[in-house]
Automatic annotation (TrEMBL):
<keyword id="KW-0238">DNA-binding</keyword>
<dbReference type="InterPro" id="IPR000847">
    <property type="entry name" value="LysR_HTH_N"/>
</dbReference>
<dbReference type="InterPro" id="IPR036390">
    <property type="entry name" value="WH_DNA-bd_sf"/>
</dbReference>
<keyword id="KW-0805">Transcription regulation</keyword>
<dbReference type="InterPro" id="IPR005119">
    <property type="entry name" value="LysR_subst-bd"/>
</dbReference>
<comment type="similarity">
    <text>Belongs to the LysR transcriptional regulatory family.</text>
</comment>
<dbReference type="GO" id="GO:0003677">
    <property type="term" value="F:DNA binding"/>
</dbReference>
<keyword id="KW-0804">Transcription</keyword>
<dbReference type="Pfam" id="PF00126">
    <property type="entry name" value="HTH_1"/>
</dbReference>
<dbReference type="GO" id="GO:0003700">
    <property type="term" value="F:DNA-binding transcription factor activity"/>
</dbReference>
<protein>
    <submittedName>
        <fullName>LysR family transcriptional regulator</fullName>
    </submittedName>
</protein>
<dbReference type="Pfam" id="PF03466">
    <property type="entry name" value="LysR_substrate"/>
</dbReference>
<dbReference type="GO" id="GO:0005829">
    <property type="term" value="C:cytosol"/>
</dbReference>
<feature type="domain" description="HTH lysR-type">
    <location>
        <begin position="1"/>
        <end position="58"/>
    </location>
</feature>
<dbReference type="InterPro" id="IPR036388">
    <property type="entry name" value="WH-like_DNA-bd_sf"/>
</dbReference>
<dbReference type="InterPro" id="IPR050950">
    <property type="entry name" value="HTH-type_LysR_regulators"/>
</dbReference>
Amino acid sequence: MDIKHLRYATALAQELNFARAAEKLHLSQPALSRAIQSLEAQLGFLLFDRDKRNVATTTAGEAFLQQAKGILFQMRTLELNMAQLRDGSGGHVAFGAGPSPTNSLLQATLARLRRQHPGIALRVDSNNWRYLLLHLRAEDIEFFVADTREIGAQHDLVIMPLCRQPGGFFCRAQHPLLERAHYSPADLLEYGFVGNSMPAPVQAGLKTFLGLSTAQPLPIALQCDNFTLLKEQTLSDDLILLAPRASLVHELAAGRLRELRFGGTESLFTDIDIVHLQGRTLSPSARSVVDALRETVAHQPAEFIQARS
């Protein structure tokens, strides 16, 4: 059954006049008449009673046209949805975000997406990279954005660089260290640290910076992937927070947290990448999310976030 014939029949049912319906459809009247006759022959019953002056729907025609209108509505909805999927302005996207990008990139990215593509429905899993990798391979999410230094190159993954986030040491504004005229990295050890999980190379570099031997453990009092909890603990204690600056923009601007600056902290950074499965093309809607992430990165000060490619 030709979908065009359904459109012709519903137009004729609305107008109940071949001439007006043909004009509305931009067809000649004989062409419309032939199309209706063809549809009736295919169905095996008349849709319309007509004479020289009048057109009226038959009882069978009424039943058919009611269902035809539903089909045409579904077709229009399908066409609209597919157009949105094609240009990345609609559809559903499930993706993951590690602790650092959740805290430093997602709010601005989601706001950007709502402005640019309000038709996209999102589901975001915020967790550590191990959890996200499991869910990516299970195809519960389409991609994730996280620190990937512990993942490395793997045959089933595509890893696309996004940004680098310089890190440092941070404390509350009333911290005893800030009352000293001078302080050194070794002075941090007496207070202990809070932070999220760190790759082994970062831990090794941190030990060297603090003057610890490889056998000595880092004095980490609290380790978790929830930056809100880490910040609250730092604000209520004398612990030192190890974190990317980009995760603390508001607290630093408000003066609630202060950075303890030292030379030689260039190795303290987080590299954020976008990861998806090899052989799985990102949907247009997912590409819109990735584009929004890159736009967010591009608009951040280099002190906090530096784009990578």
